[in-house]
Amino acid sequence: MDDSSRKEPFRYVMNQPIQCWLEVPAGNTGPGAGKLTEGVLLDLSRSGCKVRTSLNLRFTSGDTKLIIHFRLAEVNLQFEGSVRWGWMFGIGQFQYGIRLELNEQEEEQLVRELELWTNTRTAL
């Protein structure tokens, strides 16, 4: 018998991708440093997310830091993370897996927003 008390999915898949913005911190060198680049959020969990964008990071796994900006429900969210993997997705598009580096307060905020977002999606 399963004693798991998990009441949420491991990963929330966005059936309609959510607009996001990716920012490579200004102190970094390389493509997009200090600028916001548009993208779409494809899925999201407490520990990370998958995004698609035109930004070609030419990254070394784990070394590329990003700040992701998006809005799920009520507030604009901004979280730091690091690129875990990436590949070309069609012409001029790239898909990345980002591990979020959240403190306790940010994780609580993300959970609240995910709950609100989920409730509005099921109400439709």
What's the short story on this structure?
The protein has 124 residues and is α+β, with helices and mostly antiparallel strands. Helix content is 16%, strand content 44%. The longest helix has 20 residues, at 104-123.
Task: Please give a structural write-up.
- The protein has one helix and six strands, in the order ββββββα.
- The chain is of the alpha+beta class and 124 residues long.
- The chain has a single domain, classed as Beta Barrel (Thrombin, subunit H).
- 21% of the residues are buried.
Secondary structure layout:
Layout: E1 12-23, E2 36-44, E3 48-53, E4 65-71, E5 76-88, E6 94-100, H1 104-123
Antiparallel strand pairs: 1-2, 1-4, 2-3, 3-6, 4-5, 5-6
